[in-house]
Amino acid sequence: MKLYYMPGACSLADHIALEWANADYEACAVSRESLKQPEFLALNPMGSVPCLVDGDFVLTQNVAILHYLDEKYPQASLLGGKDLQTRANAMRWLAFCNADLHGAFVGIFAPFRLIDDETAHANIQAKAREKITNLLNIANNALQNKQYIAGVKTVADAYLFVILRWCVGVGIDLTPFANLVALMNNLMQDVGVKNAMQAEGL
Ligand SMILES: N[C@@H](CCC(=O)N[C@@H](CS)C(=O)NCC(=O)O)C(=O)O
Fold first, then answer.
1. Which of 4, 10, 17, 129 has the most CB atoms around its CB within 10 Å?
2. 153 C-alpha to center of ligand 1: Å?
3. Domain residue limits, the chain
4. Which CATH superfamily is domain 2-77+194-199 in?
5. Mean pLDDT in the chain?
6. Any idea which architecture 84-190 has in CATH?
7. SS3 for 86?
8. CA distance 83 to 34
9. How far is the CA of 146 from the centre of ligand 1 (A)?
10. Helix axis angle, 84-95 relative to 62-72, nearest 10°?
11. Among 11, 30, 46, 106, residue to substitute to test ligand 1 (most atoms within 8 Å of Cβ)
């Protein structure tokens, strides 16, 4: 199995999941430029990571890949095991990370994708920061008295971890969010997280 990734991108969540599953895989780094080249576009017409190749099967979209890995490696409980409501909660927070939090980062990383007018970019970035801060507050509250966002360790935590790294990278102050800081520090000590980060040169 091959995981195509960019260092520190959302594909780090899949990389962590593969480590947690003790999977037999190869991690293939892709440069931002080669994402848009025909060779990679043949795998993923979106020109984005993550992209997972399992034999003849090519899968894109983070949530689909994480779900696939959960089904392929049930012993790893990547989505919280068999309990219906635990799994539903893991999916809920995974969707929150992928659709809401990740989605909001487009406003910071690539405001030019939203509007051509450069004079509006600073305003879009400020709005995106405001939205992300509100979302962080929701996640921080959900983590009250809990070690992990769905109650047990799942790939939703891995995705949240990736996004918390981005927050630090763009200077979003995490100090008001003690539960998120605790999650981040906890996962920094996790062997699977450490392995994936080391492999990505982070
Ligand atoms: N909806 C996609 C989003 C993937 C995505 O935005 N990946 C980013 C890295 S975090 C990327 O490859 N961006 C390159 C680009 O869009 O040009 C998913 O969930 O997999």
1. 17
2. 24
3. 2-77+194-199, 84-190
4. Glutaredoxin (3.40.30.10)
5. 97
6. Up-down Bundle (1.20)
7. helix
8. 41
9. 29
10. 150
11. 46
